[in-house]
Amino acid sequence: MQKPVVLITGAAGQIGSVLAEKLREKWGKEQVIASDIKYSPLAKKGPFEILDALDQNRLEEIVQKNKVTRIYHLVAILSASGEKNPVRTWDINMRSWMNILEVGRKYNLERIFFPSSIAVFGPLNEKINTPQDSVLNPTTVYGLSKVAGENWANYYAEKHGLDIRSLRYPGLISHQTPAGGGTTDYAVDIFHKAVKGEHFSCFLKKNTRLPMLYMDDALRATIELMDTPVEELTRGVAYNLGGLDFTPSEIAAAIQNILPTFSISYEPDERQAIADSWPSSIDDSMAFQDWNWKPNYDLNSMCIEMIDELKKKYFSNLSTALPKI
Ligand code: AKB
After folding, report:
1. Phi, psi values for residue 9, rounded to 5°
2. Which of 61, 120, 152, 242 could pair with 282 as two cysteines, CB 3.0-4.6 Å apart?
3. How far apart are CA 262 and CA 256, in angstroms?
C-alpha cells in the first residue's frame, strides 16, 4: 500500500497536537502536514502550513502543492464556546467542513476523517447506553453543526463516492494540550489544579455523568477506524465511541486516591444545561463489531497516567512555560 499524504486541519488543538505526532510516527514525518490558523510547535517537528480553513483557495493550494491524499479535519468551535456566538460557530464549523468536502471531491481524495461528537444527541435520546441510530436532537450550535456535518458527509459519500469516516467522540482527556471551550473540559482542568495543589471549582454538579475517553484510546480508535478496510465498515459515516463514564465526584475521588489533599467544590454554570442534555453513557457496540474497538484505560489507570505526566510537565522542567487553563 502506498503511504498516504496526510493533511491535518486545526492541528494545534487538543486532538490535532497529539494526532499529528502519532500519524508522523506511523507514516513518517514528511507524510503528515499539520496546519492551523496560528503557529504551533508542531512546525518544529515536521511539515506545517498556516491555514485558515475558511480560505478555500489556500486549502486547495496546500492540497495541490503537497499532493495530499487524506485529510483529518479538526477545526471546530466546541459546545460551550459555540453558544457565545452561534452564527460565527455555525459559519466556522460548517463552511470549513464544506471546503474540505469540496476539495475531497475535486481532488478525489482517498479518505477523509470528520470528528463528530456526543453533542449530536439531545434530551429526547435514551440517557444510558445511547444507541447509535437515535433521532438526533442537539441543543447546541456545535451539536447542530455535527449533525449537519454527518449528513453532508453521507451526501458526499453517496453522490461523489468519497470515503469519509467519523467518530462521535465523548469528552476527551489529555495532558498534552489544554481542552478549549467544551462542556467536558472540567475533566481536563481538574487534573491541572490537582497536580498544582490547588482547589478545583467544578462548573458541573457533582452527579453529572458524561461519557469520556482518555486521549490515547481516542487516537487509537481514530487510527483503527481509518485503517479498517472499507468493506468491513457496516455503519456508513459516524460511529458512536464510548469508553468511560463518570461524574465529577467520582473523578475527584479517584484523584484523591493518588493526591489525598485535593479538594473540589461545585458551582454549576450555563454549561450544566448542555451536560444535562447529553447522554450519560454511549452504546459503541458497532465499533466493537466492525473493528473490535475496546478502550485500554479505566478511570484509575487514566488518573495515574494524567497525574504522572502533568507532574513531569509542571515540575521536571521549571524553565518551560506552564500551560494556561
Ligand atoms: C465538548 O464538550 O464540546 C466536546 C465534545 C463532547 O464534543 N468535548
Report:
1. -95, 150
2. 242
3. 6
> CATH number for the 6-171+213-240 domain, one of 1.10.10.10, 3.40.50.300, 3.40.50.720, 3.40.1190.20?
3.40.50.720
What confidence tens digit (pLDDT) does each residue in 203-222 have?
Answer: 999 999 999 999 999 999 99
For residue 183 and ligand 1, the question of a CB distance below 6 A is answered with yes
The proportion of the chain whose per-residue pLDDT surpasses 90, expressed as a percent, equals 94
How far does residue 104's CA lie from ligand 1's centre (Å)?
A: 26
Residue in 166, 151, 180 with CA at minimum distance from that of residue 115: 166
* Gap from CA of 246 to ligand 1 centroid (Å): 15
Give the side-chain half-sphere CA count within 13 A for 237.
Answer: 23
Structure confidence at residue 237 (pLDDT): 86
> Does 174 sit in the ligand 1 pocket, CB within 6 Å?
no
Pairing of strands 244-246, 210-214: antiparallel
Query: 169 catalytic, yes or no?
Result: no
> Is the CATH number of domain 173-210+244-277+297-315 3.90.25?
yes
Q: Enter the C-alpha cell of residue 151.
A: 449528513
**Is ligand 1 within 6 A of the CB of residue 120?**
no
Q: How do residues 39-79 score in pLDDT, each as one tens digit? A: 999 999 999 999 999 999 999 999 999 999 999 999 999 99
State the distance from the centre of ligand 1 to the C-alpha of 180, rounded, in angstroms.
Answer: 9
The answer to whether the 6-171+213-240 and 173-210+244-277+297-315 domains have the same CATH topology is: no
Ligand 1 atom with the smallest distance to the CA of 115 is 7
pLDDT tens figures, 97-156: 999 999 999 999 999 999 999 999 999 999 999 999 989 999 999 999 999 999 999 999
pLDDT at 297 over 70: yes
Among 72, 107, 142, 239, the one annotated catalytic: 142
